Amino acid sequence: MVRTVACILLSTMLFSCNLFNGKGSRSNDRGMIIPSKKSKNFSPERPVGMVAIPGGSFVMGQTDYDFAQQKNASPKTVSVSGFFMDDTEIRNSEYQEFVSYVRDSIVRQRLAERAYELGYDGTANAASGQGGISDFAFKAKDNATGEQSAYLQYVNEMADGRSGYESERQLNWDIPIIWDKYEYPDRDYVEVMEALYYPPKDRFNGERILDVRKLNFVFTEVDKNKAARATNSKRQDFVVTDTVNVYPDTTVWVRDFNYAYNDPLHEDYFWNEAYADYPVVGVTWSQAKGFCVFRTKKHQDYKRSRRKNNTENVIQYRLPTEVEWEYAARGGIQNAPYPWGGPYLTDSRGCYLANFKPKRGDYVEDCCAKSKKSGFIYTAPVKTFHPNGYGLYDMAGNVAEWTQSPYGTSSGEYTGTLNPYLGTGKDTDRKTVKGGSWKDVGYMLMVGNRDNEHKDSARSYIGFRTVQSIPEGADVRYNRTRQ
């Protein structure tokens, strides 16, 4: 017995020595705690189409004469961390990617569910895309090796409606969707696809159109405010699932103006190629939030596809807070009423500096900075006018923009001064809107001006842009600001 214990102790000592002399799985840390990774400068990837806004402090609020007696925009000094921001409002062409992704996801999801009902498990090799609905079964093979994945098989087996693994099943994106109704491969495929279109009784002139009411995007998030204040609760109590229809409301062009003939915009503004570089409108705050989730997912999926087992998370895209938006709109110029400084709405040549309503009944600007046209009656293509000191376009005029912050008439008075959210901590139904639009007078374009709208309302004059936080201490190259 003594010999057995001695052998065990000796083996333990030899094993320990092996671990700490550099020959085992650990480094030679001499029994001390040493960071596994050496510290180095972190340089976040600048997303395409975004500019870096340096952190700093500024006087928030109405620093010019308060013509409208808007006491909810009183001046206050605050500090803001750095962030990336879209240099333009989100275009129609960019939002179309979101709509197309949701459309294709729903089609593939329904095809996969039907294939699952028919007993197809995704283990068979897909043909050239003409093999029938079985080609669209939930995946059971690894993309890199082409071999069956034990995890995907487990997920598919556990997807019984009670385990919660239904959302973990992976759609097959390798096979193109067949859109031509005369090339549908089998009857099950026909039945699934026909259910996604308007029924014959709802069609005009026999035109077969996808039912946009079914283009719903489902995403989850954590209610951090609730989690921070709760005790002895389960994680699932703070997980919030949102469902939002992603198709923009094109009827806003008719609904917002009762006595104007805007039918052509209702028909063409979102999908016609002529409007590809125009800012998307008719989008609610909830839809803009859903777009941010989609943009994060798309970026994350790409990074993981490029490097297997990549666990690095993409910094989330989101809507800017009201304070972030106003700070960026000032372009590094303190106490300026407009993004270009001010106080005038025209440059030295008499050209208007933004897309807005310059005179009563006159929606056409006398001249535009970068266009041969004399002006725009409605919205203008992004980057038509000159950027501000941070390189941001249309921070005044064109379309007003959603912010993340709830709207309160006196929120600036009782909130903090460090990255203020300007909310009550509760998700109110009204959200702050900033920037003014093509239909507004010059006063609404002031950076300190505040407006609001119900978060589920869509307007022909409200769009949005997104931001991405920059970690403190990150190595980022910022653009010089105009002084």
TrEMBL record:
Q: Which Gene3D superfamilies match?
A: paralog of FGE (formylglycine-generating enzyme)
Q: Which residues form the Sulfatase-modifying factor enzyme-like domain?
A: 49-467
Q: What is this protein called?
A: Serine/threonine-protein kinase pkn1
- Quote the InterPro entries the UniProt record gives: CTDL_fold, Glid_motil-assoc_lipo_GldK, Sulfatase_Mod_Factor_Kinase, SUMF_dom, SUMF_sf
Query: What phylogenetic lineage does the species belong to?
Result: Bacteria, Pseudomonadati, Bacteroidota, Flavobacteriia, Flavobacteriales
Q: Name one GO molecular function term.
A: protein serine/threonine kinase activity
Look at the named UniProt entry and state the broad enzyme category this protein falls under: transferase
Q: What is its EC number?
A: 2.7.11.1
